[in-house]
Amino acid sequence: MSENAGGRLLLGTQGFAFDDWVGPFYPEGTPKRKYLEEYAQRLPTVEIDSSFYGTPRATTVQGWFERTPDNFRFSAKFPRLITHDKKLEGALADAEVFVATMQALGEKLGALILQFAYDFTPDQFERLQAFLDALPEGVRYAVEVRNRKWLTPKLNEMLAARNAALVLQDLHYMPRLDWITADFTVIRWLGRRKDISRFDEIQIDRTSNLEWWAERVQRFIQSGVDVLGYFNNHFAGHSPASARQFATMLAVELGGLNGVDAGQMPMALNDE
Fold first, then answer.
1. Is 3 among the domain residues?
2. CA-to-CA distance for 25 and 136, rounded, in angstroms?
3. What is the pLDDT of residues 145-169, one digit of tens each?
4. Residue 26's beta-bridge partner residues?
5. How many Å separate Cα 266 from the centre of its chain?
6. For residue 23, is it within any domain?
7. How many domains does the chain have?
8. Does residue 187 lie in a domain region?
9. Percentage of residues in the chain with pLDDT exceeding 90?
10. Burial 151-184 (b: 16+ CB within 10 A, else e)
11. Tell me, what CATH number does 33's domain have?
12. CB 116 within 8 A of CB 80
């Protein structure tokens, strides 16, 4: 982390294994086996998407570690078995296996995200609270809800008491929030799947969305909150370009392998 009082900004994408990126992002002719290495030369963090479909093999995680620079960071979603199928019930053993597997990344582990479906409703509040309390220590956990009924002071207070982040999202049917419940936050720019069918270039102008986020991210960083931000291809069509656009709005370099510290950011954008 930065030695100054501010937080750190790391911007990346949700996933890295997209053939449509060869040419626009990866050099022409890049083979699939080299995607991660090329990615890590251009962006400082990635959200692993494949973990949603199952805990990765230990050898896979070791490969991620070995193929990326020391300052690179991985975040990942908990497997859907835990969050969607079991809805946390009887899922602690599965979660412990997943967390232990991901902890092999050591300092390269960013955050682990519990992303829930719309049908995970606030009547499961106590189950979520107990589950968070039982998770292994020493990991940054973030909670993403897709049902706006969750968005109450009660959830805010519960997460804050555990230094767990509420995932801030740009999703068409959810409100954009600037709640900070931990010493870090995760932002996920999601879009809508039916709007995008290829991933090689920007196809939807999301400038107004990003302007809204830029003001808040600058405030988060200046107040000492670390920000992990991940763009989905479905947000605008080509998530690496969205990350570059957002960095330009903030008047910062993407940072390559090192991310962006608060001291590198301008003192103010457009004040509200």
1. no
2. 37
3. 999 999 999 999 999 999 999 999 9
4. 22
5. 23
6. yes
7. 1
8. yes
9. 90
10. beeebbebbeeeebbbbbbbbeebeeeeebbbeb
11. 3.20.20.410
12. no
Radius of gyration of the chain measured on its C-alpha atoms: 18
Q: How many CB atoms lie within 10 A of CB 148?
A: 13
- d(CA 107, CA 10) in angstroms, rounded, equals 14
Residue with tokens 């002071």: 153
The H-or-E segment that residue 63 falls in is helix 58-66
Q: Could you tell me the residue range of the domain that residue 257 belongs to?
A: 8-264
Which amino acid does the sequence have at 11? L
Give pLDDT tens digits along the chain (272 positions). 333 458 999 999 999 999 999 999 999 999 999 999 999 999 999 999 999 999 999 999 999 999 999 999 999 999 999 999 999 999 999 999 999 999 999 999 999 999 999 999 999 999 999 999 999 999 999 999 999 999 999 999 999 999 999 999 999 999 999 999 999 999 999 999 999 999 999 999 999 999 999 999 999 999 999 999 999 999 999 999 999 999 999 988 775 444 556 556 554 443 32
Task: Provide the token pair at 131.
Answer: 């589950």
Tokens of 39: 């990615």
Q: CA-CA distance, 168 to 175, in Å (whole number)?
A: 9
Per-residue CA distances from 210 to 110, 203, 213 (Å): 23, 15, 5
- List, for residues 30-71, the tens digit of each pLDDT value: 999 999 999 999 999 999 999 999 999 999 999 999 999 999
Can you read off the two tokens belonging to residue 67?
A: 């193929």
Q: The pTM is what? A: 0.93
**Which residue type is seen at 172?**
H
Whether 270 is covered by a domain: the verdict is: no
Q: Which residues contact 112 (CB under 8 A, 6 or more apart)?
A: 75, 76, 77, 78, 98, 99, 102, 139, 140, 141, 142
